[in-house]
Amino acid sequence: MSAANDDEIIPRAGVIGWPVAHSRSPKLHGFWLKQHGLTGRYDKLPVPPEDLAGFIADLPKEPGFRGVNVTIPHKIAVLPLMAQIDDVARRIGAVNTVVVQPDGSLYGSNTDAFGFIESLKADAPAGWVASAGPAMVLGAGGAARAVIVALLDAGVAELRLANRSIEKAVALADEFGHAVQPVAWDDRAAALAGVNLLVNTTSLGMAGQPPLEIALDDLPATALVNDIVYSPLVTDLLARAKGRGNPVVDGLGMLLHQGRPGFEAWFGVAPSVTPELREAVLAD
Question: Which of 34, 75, 168, 242 is flagged as catalytic?
């Protein structure tokens, strides 16, 4: 980071990661800054792992810096560097939003669970509620942890968790309690019977990654299908689900909604997610 001159200090935030060139967060926050006529900056900040501790320690010393978003691979490593973390970040085991407090201390939170559930609320069919039946989650990584916390907090009483490594699914079930039921990867299709929601949190189906192979024959026609992947925006899973009549929610909404709390904390305005924002963030 480079400090601003004293006579041109403006509110600043950014996203740290390694690499970080692919991040769409600057488009997201830049849109909101312009929409609300705010003076501020939001930058991509490449931080290699060996420099993370020093960067975080220096953050409160930077004139105008209000905080940062945190992406791969720093979400876990940044946890012990915070003076305080919220309960959701503690349960997920990762921080994605850092706020510099008025006293210079650092507060870490995780807005991924909020972003996930808000995207479902915004884009699911009218009347659909997460607590109406079992949920099926594919994957057991960091994104899955955020989705699990969001769904348990939303009242889901049964969450079936399928992962290519059953050991990771079992470990998450042990951590989050009896509502989470591990499912062998080979049994993932049969476990769709009776579900109210199917969520893919793996990288399968993402551009450049292997496809997600799962038969949807046993998926109820009313089940909502969500893929947190947003490149491509319409994954093969979503296309197949929509083709058989299931309501679907793409992965972009989670990205957009998770940015709302951080923007409000840094720049003092509560932003909203609109079709115009979606277009701006997707634009090349």
Answer: 75
Q: What is the pLDDT of residues 94-123, one digit of tens each?
A: 999 999 999 999 999 999 999 999 999 999
Distance, in Å, from the CA atom of 253 to the CA atom of 281, rounded to the nearest integer, reads: 11
What is the CATH class of 6-111+255-282?
Answer: alpha beta
- Residue range(s) of every CATH 3.40.50.720 domain in the chain: 125-246
Provide the whole-model pTM: 0.94
* Secondary structure element (H or E) that encloses residue 52, with its range: helix 52-58
Q: Going by C-beta distance under 8 Å and a sequence separation of 6 or more, which residues neighbour residue 55?
A: 1, 16, 45, 47
Q: How far apart, in whole angstroms, are the C-alpha atoms of residue 105 and residue 60?
A: 7
Q: Which residue type sits at 193? A: A
- The tens digit of pLDDT for each residue in 177-209 reads 999 999 999 999 999 999 999 999 999 999 999
For this structure, is 75 an active site residue?
A: yes
Cis peptide before 220 (omega within 30 of 0): no
| Bridge partners (DSSP) listed for residue 14 | 43, 68
